[in-house]
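Justification of computing resources. Each target in the renewal requires a structure prediction run like the one illustrated here; the chain below, 192 residues long, is used simply to show the kind of job we budget for.
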Amino acid sequence: MTATGDWMKWTLDQPLVAEPGTRFNYSTGNSHLFAGIIYKTTGVHATEFAEERLFGPLGIGNYFWYMGDGYPATGGSFGGLKLRPRDMAKFGTMYLNGGRWKGEQVVPKEWVSESVVPRISSWGDSQYGYQWWLHSGRVSGEDVDWFAARGYGDQLIAVVPSLDMVIVIASGNEGQGVGLDGAVMGILRAAL
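Resulting structure tokens:
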């Protein structure tokens, strides 16, 4: 995909491997289509849209967003958006609080709830919502549900509503198979 000049066309030209909604297969290309959707519906690039609607309200001013095929790279497998860990935590905290940050509704509460509803089984025991990985686990005798945004090189924002907790992991383990789920479960065991 990245070797072409038009990532969206390349993505849309790929053949279906299963009926939509029947089999999970994460696709960076499909996630990158959001850049085109945002531009087509708002007339501005995802960077400008995020600055106005998300980064500005959260006080995020220091970031890097890789430009791919003329659009900000909104797929996660090649490190499109780089945020500082404190800014990743702001995003997770906003989600933990139903889309609110410092008293302001930044993301609609309904969307926050809807985006973490399981849509399809993914890898292992995980489910997948709208760009969120959804997990359940038994920790110290308690069932704990959590959801996570995952990025390139094992970057992670995990939100654990029942513990009022946000976990941020920033690493550079491209292709190392570190096992972030195990790391999060270890943090949860320590918290309980």
